[in-house]
Amino acid sequence: MTPQDMENRIVRYGDLIPCKTAFIDAHTPGSDQKENFTIIGGGVSESPDQHVHISIPHGFNIGAAGQPPKCRNSLHSHRTAEVFFVLKGRWRFFWGRWGTAGEVTLEEGDIINIPTGIFRGFENIGTDYGMIMAVLGGDDAGGGVIWAPQVIEDAADHGLVLGANGKLYDSLKGATLPEGVAPMQVLTQDELGAFPEPTTAEVVPGHVARYLDLVALADRAPAKVIGEHGILRDKPGFEVDFITRSSATDKVHSHDRPSVLMPMRGHWRVSFDGGGVTLAPGDTMSVPENLAHSAVPSMTGEASMYHVVATDDPAGATWAG
C-alpha cells in the first residue's frame, strides 16, 4: 500500500466538511450554530447536505460535533452506543426527559460512553470553539435519532419539520412534506415512561473516564478504555484503547477488520509496508484490515491517541438501569 493510498483513508482536521443543517434543531435558537461532521460511515444526520468523508463500513461510525460557546445539542436518544471524547474545549453533558436528571462536565481528553435509551444533550461551556469526537455503534448507527417531544415542537416553530421517513424539510426554503409522508410523531406519555432517568451518581462512575487517569493507566501498556475488560466495562460493538508515548511500540501488528486511529495530543507516525504517514490531533485514520502497521510519536512532548476497532458483540443497549 502506498502513502497516497493511506492518505485517502485519512480525514485531516483541517479538511473536515461540516453540515450546519444536520438535525431538526438546526434553526432553534441556542442550537443553530452547530456543525456536524460525518467522518466514517453514514452517521445519523437527517439532512441530504451531510458530507460523508469515508463510507467504508467499519462496524461503527465516527463523527464529530463542533460548537461555539453556549451552543447546545438538543435532547435525543440512540438505540446503540454513543461515545464522545473532548478534542477541544470544555463540555457539559446532561440527560433525562428534560435534561435535569444528571450531568457531568468533561475537559479535553476525557471520554464518556453515554448509556443508550436515555435522552441526552451536550453544550460547549468553554470560551472558544469546541470539538468533540464521536463513536456510534453499528454501521447504521442504530437507525437514527429519537428526539424529546419538545425538540420537535420547538423546531416546527422555526420552520423545520422531520418526516416519518427520517428526513428534514425546511419550510423557510419552501420545502413541504412529500405526498404520503407524515410528520414524525412525538412520543406518547407511555413511550416516554420507558426512558430511564438515572442520576449523576448512577451514570458517571461506569461511563466516564478522565484523561489524566488514562495517561497514568497507559504508562506501560495501552489502556483498554471501553470493552468487556475495559475501564468502562461495556460491549457496545466496538472497543476503545488509549495509547501514550509510554505505551506506544514500533512493533507491527494488524487487525482482521478496519480500525481507526484518532490522535488526542502530539504527532504520530504510522508506518506500514510501503511507507508511512503522520497524524496530528483531530485527524482520523482508517487502517485497512490485515495491514501490518505500527504507530509511535514522531516528535517530543506529550502524545496520546484513541484507537477504535469493532467487535462481534451486537451494537445494542448499554443501560441496564
From TrEMBL:
Top-rank lineage group of the source organism: Bacteria
Q: What is the lineage of its organism?
A: Bacteria, Pseudomonadati, Pseudomonadota, Alphaproteobacteria, Rhodobacterales
Protein's recorded name: Cupin domain-containing protein
Q: Which Pfam families match?
A: Cupin_2
Source organism: Sulfitobacter sabulilitoris
Q: Which InterPro entries does this entry report, sorted A to Z? A: Cupin_2 (IPR013096), RmlC-like_jellyroll (IPR014710), RmlC_Cupin_sf (IPR011051)
Describe the location of the Cupin type-2 domain by residue ranges: 69-132
